[in-house]
Amino acid sequence: MTAGKFTLSLGVLISSLALPLASLAVDFNLDVMDVDERGSIDLSRFKTANYVMPGEYLMSIQVNDQKLAERSLHFYATDPDATTTRVCVPMSQAPSLGLKEEVLKKLSSWHGEDNCADLESIQGLRLTPDMEHSVLRLSVPQAWMEYRDPNWSPISEWDEGIPGFILDYNLNSSVSQHSGAGTTRQVSGNGTMGLNVGAWRLRGDFQGSSSQTRNYKTQDFSWSSFYAYRPLPRQGAKLMVGEVNLNSKLFDSFRYQGINLATDDQMLPPSLRGYAPEVVGVAKGNARVTVRQDDRVLYETTVPPGPFRIRDINSAVSGKLDIEISEDDGSTQRYQTETANVPYLSRPGYFRYNMTVGRPSSYDREDTGPTFAAGEMSWGMNSDWSLFGGSLLTQDYTAVAGGIGRNLHEFGVVSVDVTHTRADVPELGQLRGSSLRLNYAKRFDEYDSELNFAGYRFSQRQFMTMDDFLNARNNDGVQRNSKTAYTLLASKSFRDLGFSTHVSYTHENYWDQSSSENVSAYLSRYFDVGRFKGLSMTLSLNRTRNNWESDNSLSLSLTLPFGDGQRIGYDAYANKGGVRHAASYSKYEPSRNYQVRATTGLDGDGVQGYYSQHTAQADYSLNGSYRENGSQSVGLSVRGGATVTAKGAALHPPALNGGTRIMLDTDGVAGVPLQNGETRTNAMGVAVLPTFNSYYRTDVQIDLNRLPDDMDASKSVTEATLTEGAIGYRKLTVIQGKKALVTLKLPDGSYPPFGASLVDTSGREVAIVADSGFAYLTGINASSEFQVVWGRNKRCNLNLPDNLQSEQRYTLLCQPQF
User: Fold this and answer.
1) pLDDT value, residue 144
2) 242 has pLDDT over 90
3) What is the pLDDT of residue 53?
4) CA-CA distance, 504 to 522, in Å (whole number)?
5) Which tens digits make up the pLDDT trace of 401-439?
6) Is the pLDDT of residue 69 over 80?
7) What DSSP state is assigned to residue 104?
8) Which region is the signal sequence (predicted)?
9) Which of 454, 507, 469 is nearest to 254 (CA)?
10) Distance of alpha carbon 472 from alpha carbon 479, whole angstroms
């Protein structure tokens, strides 16, 4: 008989003995049991529905349909024989249940030592322990609950995590040789180092690069920013101190040293949050994509040939981004794109604010500006209208803005605002100007589409942003004088027709410079042709025009899958220089993929290869290329992180630099598979999983399908709602050891009573004794010690043999304890 069948049979047997429930307490008819000694049966703890033995248990609390973070809960006996127990939820934890304030104020307590909340006193509340799933279920009338959203957790559930050290890094290296240019070796990297202390997050961003050619060598390393921040949950705000970029919905971004206090959109329900930046483009070959803001590297990665879409840039980034695509043939594409900026809307009666005081600073910290103060706010007049405005003040420069936002419900949200500036610039005199801006955003989830951001801006000739003013002040001239700007990010899926589209468009005109433009658009189509099933076609258009270069390109790719993630493909790329054709073979697996590609036409004949591997410690990618003219290159990219806490340490896959992560502890058991087996616990029994969403519920689970035979997980799922930058910590119950069928006997030859509990030295129940002393043990090891407990303080001690074998059945002597 297997463990599962035995447990089920015992449960059915005990259930069948119960008389119809007239109350919580029941009696058992032992006459129906086919056992030798009916007098040697102890079912006292099964007389009460949902009985739990006295003791402390690690459990999650589920309030209605929402599960909260796990915690230690004590079950106390309520009678001398311990036949009934009651769970203790400490008064200090009661606010995390999401009850209304007036309900919490009326709660009384019991068991004075632990100050337990008397939850049963709440009218209509039902409390049910589910020990099989380690969950305490609370059914609470909705009238007693505070605001709830399926994808949002109230403040009472937010977890600040544990103290620890973090390091997130991104390293890229390449060696290339081009005809007549010699060999070039390049190494670049960027990342974030940090320390979490309580609610504070201390961070330092670094970046560096090294380049060496035949006669020239450059090296550079810098700490681009030092800063600290902490969430202020009750205020719905974040406090930040240090070197950062101004994050404003009204004024253009610039770097400063100072202090900022602002309401944090991440703390709002999802429907009121902003959109994260997004970068799209097309790589001609194996390419390195670098995203910068001014001189700071925000993101860097390598991509294979074809369209790419980067969506994991920090949502706190605002303003213009500089995109650089470095191809393996030595060519480079550069363009700028605007980050998405959702209209400034607030809930009815709700104020959102953003206050900053500091001094502008360049990335080399050599150029600084006068001390400034900036403030902005938004007020929700009602459910449809919001007013917003703000000002930025410093010596010789003033900016004042005001606007209005409108919720169009199923048609999205729209806002319009006007900014007026006054600047006194040496040699240019006093400049006054205004700028008009119109923004629109809408997610069409029901139509599988989203118009993330659409914006228009018109500025008068003498209008100056703060960044323009600082450049004019430090460099004796105006470097950028924008006239009009248009921005669009949109996507749409047509599932019935089998294709999807995406468009990214940025266009900017200047009063005294040539205009710049970037368009990236693609269309993907899936279809079947005769015996060929699952064909896909992608058509991509890319146009870049600015002061550096002008480039128009069109690419077409066709792929045909033929089982086990394998694909063959054809693609063509065309620009003003000609057309390149390519044939490829690729294979995609859950943790790795690779591609081999042969090209002809533009830039001559050649071959390229790309390989990427996702591991529990980091993500790796390797690429190489060779062309008939003798040009060749090879590159390696590594992205990952390290997290060190008092609970353990682990290398892990890449997280958003300095971002939120969760540490899973399996109590020293190594090799436990998590999240579809992509990550396993290390030798310390811990693993770290990065998560990109702060203030969202994050579910983490053990992959039971890949769990080794010598492991059992009594608790395999947990969840957490972590504040920004937190190191969450959760412990999952995993037992590693052998399984054994045993017969237990007492010194007088009798058996421990039916229903007795077998517990290990930690108090964990490992089995329930069945008829004739039979028990099935799991998660045990040779020489393990146990106790068998029954009745009123009756128990005996049990030792397993040194040469324990799972396939044998043992008869073991249990020595009474006096």
Assistant:
1) 77
2) yes
3) 77
4) 9
5) 999 988 787 777 889 999 999 999 887 889 999 999 998
6) no
7) H
8) 1-25
9) 469
10) 7
Distance CA 260, CA 229 (A): 9
- pLDDT tier at 570 (50, 70, 90 boundaries)? very high
> Three-state SS across 493-507?
EECCCCEEEEEEEEE
Strand-by-strand arrangement of the 794-799 sheet: 765-768, 757-760, 785-790, 794-799, 815-816
Query: If we measure between CA atoms, which residue out of 295, 325, 328 comes closest to residue 310?
Result: 325
DSSP 331-379: -EEEEEEEPP-------BT-EEEEEEEEEEB-TTS--B---EEEEEEEE
Distant-in-sequence, close-in-space partners of 487: CB < 8 Å, separation ≥ 6: 338, 453, 454, 455, 456, 505, 506
Closest CA to 305 of 323, 334, 329: 329
**Considering just the CA atoms, what is the radius of gyration of the chain in Å?**
32
Pairing, β 592-601 against β 385-394: unpaired
Q: Could you give the 3-state DSSP secondary structure of residue 408?
A: coil
Q: What are phi and psi of 92, to 5 degrees?
A: -65, -20
| CA separation for the pair 258, 240 (Å, rounded) | 8
Residue 256 near residue 361 (C-beta atoms within 8 A): yes
Q: Contacts for 533-539 with beta carbons within 8 Å, 24 or more apart?
A: 533/561, 534/560, 534/561, 535/559, 535/560, 538/306, 538/307
> What secondary structure, in 3-state letters, does 653-718 show?
CCCCCCCCEEEEECCCCCCCEECCCCEECCCCCEEEEECCCCCCEEEEEECHHHCCCCEEECCCEE
Q: What is the pLDDT of residues 167-186, one digit of tens each?
A: 999 999 999 988 777 888 99
pLDDT in tens, 445-498: 555 556 667 788 999 999 999 988 888 887 765 556 789 998 888 887 777 777
Q: Give phi and psi for 576, each to the nearest 5.
A: -65, -15
Helices (H) and strands (E) in the chain, counts: 3, 56
> pLDDT class for 343, splitting at 50, 70, 90?
low
- Across the chain, what does the average pLDDT equal? 81
Q: What percent of the chain has pLDDT over 70?
A: 84
Question: b/e for 225-246, b at 16 or more Cβ within 10 A?
Answer: bbbbbbbebeebbbbbbbbbbb
* Type and span of the H or E element at 618: strand 618-627
Task: Give the 3-state secondary structure of residue 263.
Answer: strand
Cα separation of 769 and 789, whole Å? 10
Q: Is the dihedral of CA 705, 707, 712, 717 positive or negative?
A: negative
From 201-205, 643-647, 786-790, the region with the lowest mean pLDDT:
786-790
Return d(Cα 597, Cα 571) in angstroms, integer. Answer: 10
pTM > 0.85 = no
